[in-house]
Structure formats: C-alpha cells, structure tokens
Amino acid sequence: MYKHKNAFAIITLLAITAVTGPVSAQDDLRILRRGIAGDPESLDPHRLLSAFESTIMTDMFIALATTAPDDSPIPGSAESWIVSDDGLTYTFNMRDGLLWSDGTPLDAYDFLYSFRRQLDPATASRTAEYFRPIVNAEAVSKGEKPVESLGVEAVDADTLIIRLAHPAPYFIDILAIDARPVPRHVVEKFGREWTRPENMVVNGPFKLAEWSPSSHVKLVKNASFFDADNVLVDEVFQIPSEDMGTAFRRFRSGDMDTLVFFPPNQLDFIRETMPDVLHITQGLTTELYVFNTDKPPFDDVRVRRALSMAIDRELLANRVLRTGEIPAYGYIPSTVNSYPNQARADFADWTMGQRRTEATRLLEEAGFGLGNPLTVPIRYNTVELQVKQASAISAMWKQIGVQTELINSERRVLAADRMSGNFEVARYLHVAGNYDAASFLLWLHSELSSRNFSNYESAEYNALFNAAWRENDPAERSRKTNLAEAQALKDHPMIPLYYYSGRRLVRPHVKGWVDNARGVYPSRWLSIVR
Known about the structure:
The chain is α+β, with helices and mostly antiparallel strands and 530 residues long. It has helices spanning 6-20, 51-60, 108-119, 137-141, 171-178, 184-190, 244-253, 267-273, 301-309, 313-321, 352-365, 384-398, 411-420, 459-469, 474-491, and strands spanning 31-36, 65-67, 73-75, 78-83, 89-94, 152-156, 159-163, 206-212, 216-221, 235-240, 258-259, 278-291, 326-327, 375-381, 403-409, 425-431, 494-506, 510-511, 527-528. 30% of the residues lie in helices and 21% in strands.
C-alpha cells in the first residue's frame, strides 16, 4: 500500500534509524512510534504548556486516578476512593507496594507534596487553576496562604484526603489527567534539572531514556510500575513535527505508527488509499479567534460582534477544512457531559446576507466605513491549515469593508504573544481537560483563570459562572452553565469558529486504540501486533 522509489526508501530508512537505532538491534523489541504536534518545552508534569506534552506525561506518571482505554476514569495510584454524600470530601486508599522508577517507595505523602508543589505560586503551574475547588487552593496559588493550608491531608502513608470548598462533579476527571505526582527526593536534589534523562524518576508505565529536541522523546518500559506485567510495549518514541505535511510524509514512509494530525487536503487521498488508518473523532476542543479587549477598537462590543457575525462558519468547516469539524456558535461542544441545551449566538440562524448587513451597520455605528476602514491584525501559527483559515476569514471580513494584516509565527511565539497580550486578534485552540461543561468556561473568568487571554471582564458573567461552578446537581449545573455561556456569547470576547475533530492516523498493527473525545491514548493500553 505504501510504495516509494528506491532513493526515497533509503532516505526513509536513514530517518527511521536515526530515531530508533539500528534496525537489527531492535528486532526483539516492541517499539511504538507516535507522531506529536510539536516539541515539548518541559517534561515537568506541573509545568506543562500544551496537550502533546500532556500525552507524554500520561505515559510517565500515574495520578491517584487514571484513564481506561476509552478515557473513562479508573483507579490509578489509589486502588479505590470514597466521595462523601455532599461531594466535598474525597478519601483515597493507596495501592500497596508502589514504587518510583528508581525503587524508592511511593505513598500518600508523595501526593501531598505534589499537590502543594503544583499549587505553589513559585511553580507557576498552568494547571493549578483546575484545582481551585480544593479548600484554600485559590489563596495558596495567589500566595495569600501557605501551601500547608491546602485542603489535602495525608492521614498516613496509605490514605490521602482531599477536601473541596464546593462540589466539583468533574473532580476525578481532573485528577486522572492533571494531578500527577513528582518525586520529592529527586526534585529537591536536582532542582530544574530533575527532568534530565539521567535524573528523572517517574511512577508510570514508561520512564524517560532520551530527550533530543526537534527529534524525539524516547521512553522505555518501567519495570517498577505496579501493572508492568500488562504493559505490552517496550519502547515509545514521541516524534515531534509542527508541520503537517512533513509529519504526514513521515507517516506514509513508515516512520510513525500513529499521527495526531494531517493536512486537510490529504483527506480524500487517505480515504481512497489507506482508509484503515483513518480515525476522525469529535473532540472536546473549540477553535477560536481571541480579541484583546484591552486594545481599541476591540474594547467595543459592536466591533467584536460585527467581526464574529461576518464569518461564514459553514463555509469554513465544509469547504476550507473538510475534516468533520462542526460550525460553532457557542463555546462548549456537544461532547461534554450533561449539557443538552448548548447556548448559541443569536445570529446563528440568520442568512449570511442578513449578518453582513448588520455587521456593516455595527461597524459604521462604531466609526468605521469606506472613509475609515477597520484594519484587523490576525496572529496565527505557521502551519498550512492556519494559513488557509486566516486567508479565508480575511476574505469574509473584506465583504464588510474590513482590511486584515496576517501575522504568522511559530507556535511558541504565538503562545507567548497571547499570554503577554501582544496581539489584537489571535488564534487559539481551547482543549478541555475534562468532560464537564462548566469547566469549559473557566478560562473566561477574570479572577479564576490565568488563561483569560482576551482580558474579558464582566461582573455579570463572573456571577453566573460562579453559580454554575459550585452547583452539584447535574440538571441545575447544566442550566446555570447555559446562562453563563449565553452571557459570554452576548459580550463576544472571542469568536468560536468550529468544534474541532481529532484527525488521527493509526496503523492497523497498533492494537488497543479506542477513539475518545478528549484524545487521551496512553501507550500503556496499546500493543504492536504485526
């Protein structure tokens, strides 16, 4: 199925050898090669910046809970837990005989240390905000209270208790992905260098062997993992490639067993020539353009609303992208749990003609028109898909008299610009950490989130979100979340474009792959059967 000329075959063999070593030396090893979307900036589980870094961490660390192949929560380092009737107290019973990869015993005190480290403002963890429901977590993360006041207690080596300030039905989901333990004895000995391959100690199914930036992260099976006998892969190579075309060529050449994305213009070719590798799954992800509401004229809701209205989301999803994305008129995708009534922008059912007419009127009301056209700089990362998307949106805005300045940059530069506020309009892919609808709106809160890139500030939204965030009854939580989302959509701090589809390629010899919305595929559950 995958044919190529001899010269290309030689080049491919050299590329594979560079990543996996001499072919003859690997014959007896079960090796999984995974293509990821970019180079990790950190392998410290408390300092992650991206989803693909989290994918690597999932292979190296097991939290109190973890995930089954279908992404449902199951016991991890804790063999069981009990939740109090009021949803405020979680009691975890640790597994017997847990070890770090260097043979050091691991117990509840390691998790106590790890929670405190993750919430400590000195760590500057971007995932700290996920744990705000824990008693005193917000005050600790802001440096207002000492880490010892955090509502996490090790009763003894076998028992850990976490106390919440308010119910959080999604809490186990969060723990399974984002509450990874770190080895205190190693972190305190080596400081920032504890994640170097020669120093790093983990508790998951794989441990770090090599980290070669722009080439690969090599993981090897961890014999000290509590379920090592059932891990069916010996080595995992995480191979970064930010360019979709390059990654796809490497997959076709046999250099990768799985790939997390591919160029949309290759979809028809894949369906025709290799349909058995194609996996398209609706995700927990929304593609957005973010306004910097601190910068005029984007501090004017009329301008933001006009630009949002003028985007033809159906055309964008069905003709520009063409890989199963769903046009988005709200922030929360349908793949979340217990949220049957999604909020939608009030113009969602208007014709594009009606929307352009109203958008033009709003811009004129805000002071823009033929004699004074609005110019919008769009920042996006340099990949083919984003170039096409920005160009298409630029053409749509041109129909309402708006000029655009297209500014592309590397993914890391774009992320830094968003974080520092160095943008007017910027591309952002919001990936949810769990299946709770309310938590999908956390990042719009002006006080609770460090990722409120738009600098959106609304007392009304904050109050509505707070009511949803603290609600334990599923039906009421859904109703209150809907009210909060509707308020945000009214204020237009960012433009929802479409709900992202996971586009993955998985070779048939990779067994155990179960498609899921969050896109969590631990190598622990995979095997190679040729």
